[in-house]
Amino acid sequence: VIKVQDAVKDRSAESWRVGHGYDIHRLEAGRKLILAGVEIPCARGLAGHSDADAAYHAVIDAMLGAAGLEDIGTQFPDTDPHYRGIDSGVLVEKTLVKVQAAGYELVNVDVTVIAEKPNLREYKPQMRINLAERLGLPADAVSVKAKTNEELGEIGRGEAIACLATVLLKKGERA
Ligand SMILES: [Zn+2]
Asked: Model pTM?
């Protein structure tokens, strides 16, 4: 019989860390729509200082949160001209280095994109591949889900796209 306390000890906070991230960007004419590194045909794209890839940004904040590091706005300030128009996939890779330096390795990533339009169904597989490549994970450790906001609120009116991400980290072998 396994005692509850022993089970809790085996999954101690020192070994396993969960983190969540959220991001939202406005949709504006004249911008590219890029989600998890995939350029999606659309009359409008996400506005922002970088490429405004809300999926990558949510994943970055989830990773930083799980590792107990400062958030994306602190790590990669939008006042820094270096990050103007930057491919956020590069920031994902920089974040992975920070997380690994803190002694963690990534276990899995789960992403939800909330967009009224366009329909993301045909782009989800490439988003998943891009995330897996940037993070050095097998594709089955990455999930990308897409849903609408049931026409409710600013997302439902097509004024913005939001993304949520959850990641699990574990202490690395050398930690
Ligand atoms: Zn963002």
From this structure: 0.91
